[in-house]
Each structure stands twice: as C-alpha cells, then as structure tokens.
Protein: DUF547 domain-containing protein
Organism: Hymenobacter antarcticus
Amino acid sequence: MPFATHLRRFLSYCLLAAPVLAHADAPPTPSLSAGTSTFLAKYVNAEGNVNYAAIKRNPLELKDLLRRVETFNAAAAKPAEREAFYLNAYNLLVIGEVVARYPLESVEKVPGFFDKNLVSVAGEKLTLNDLEAKKLRQPYADPRVHFALVCGAKGCPRLSRTAYAATQLDAQLTTQARKVLQDPTFIRVDNKARKVQLSQIFKWYEADFKASGKTGVAYVNQFREGKTIPATYAVDYYVYDWALNSQK
C-alpha cells in the first residue's frame, strides 16, 4: 500500500479520535449545588451582601447557572434534591433579576418583581412568589426555608455563601436558622427594656410557623443555644428594610 494512503488513513483516524480523547480528558461538570457554592463564595461577602456590580460586568457564570436552573429535571429528583434545588434556584433567580436591572436601589421599585414577572425554573414559568409558595412552603411545610430564601433586601436573612445540597440539607437548614435567629440585626433583643423586636417575616408567615407547633419567640428560642428570650418580654416587629442587599 502506498505511503500516501497509509498517511491519509492515519490522519483520518486522528481526526475521528480527537473529539473522543478531548471529551475523555475534560474535567467533569460540577453539580448545580457545587457550582452555586463557587459562585456565592465569589460574589457574596460575610454580611450576606451581593456584589451585583461585579456580576453585571462578568455575567457568564450566573447565566450558566440560570440555564441549568431552567433545564433541571425536578420530576426525576428525590424530595431532598428538589427542595435543595428550589432553594438555590430562588436565590439565584433573585440575583439574576436584580443584575438584569442593575443599578437598582430596591427590588420594591420593580413593578411585579415577586408577583407578576415570570422566571424560568425546571421547565416552568413561575413568579418568585409561586416558586416560594408552591415549590417550597406548601410541599415541605418547614418554616426554616424562610431563613434560607433571600429576596434581595437588607431586611432578609443574610444570604449563605454556601449552596444547599440534598445530602446535607436538614443540617444546613438548622445551621442557617441558628445563624439568622442569633443575629442581633435580625432578632433585636433589648434586655433593659425587656422587649424583643422580630422580623416581619414572623408576622407575614405566621400560619407557617403556627403549623410547626411554635410561633414567634417560642419558635426563635429553639435555635438560640443558651440565649433564649424570656417569654415575659414584650414582642413587636421592626420595619422591613427593602434597600438592596448590595455590597458598597
């Protein structure tokens, strides 16, 4: 067989094999949870504030995560996987909606931000309110989700820099509840005046907490680890701060 024929066959084999070899050598795509953790660690600080300006300048990482949120197969996922997914999806989608309109002073200045504007999640078009109520509050009936979901405002719980994962979800939700309910900016205890001011979250979602068997201070005290609030303290609610949870 002529040398030229051998050479042509060898080159043809190399062209066919190259994509297979390149695919074999490519690093595995991280899970959505792992990718979200990487993203949050990069753009969220210890105070839970988001660097929206930096994301706006470099949006590809967020866009990739939102594409994965849009195409996730929720029907095939186990309950804990779905819950972790929807928690992460809500927080990512809020960030995405803010970035799309940034600079922005407050999500309250966007008409229909929570109850009319549609987002793409697991093959569905939902409002953020529907995502919260129909995919998390109703099916799981776990008030701890209120401390994991962050609606883009300073009055919200501090956004975790770690995404939620199915294998650790219960422990993560408890850890997040402890952090939030011991945060003096979220639960404001005045021992001298013998009173406590709670977030309006406890007022707006009172039915959720009541269904768990405890409301208000009694619910909060489960997570305060030795810093329990006396039942005799007067209870009030401070005004929710809707200013954007952006880094300065």
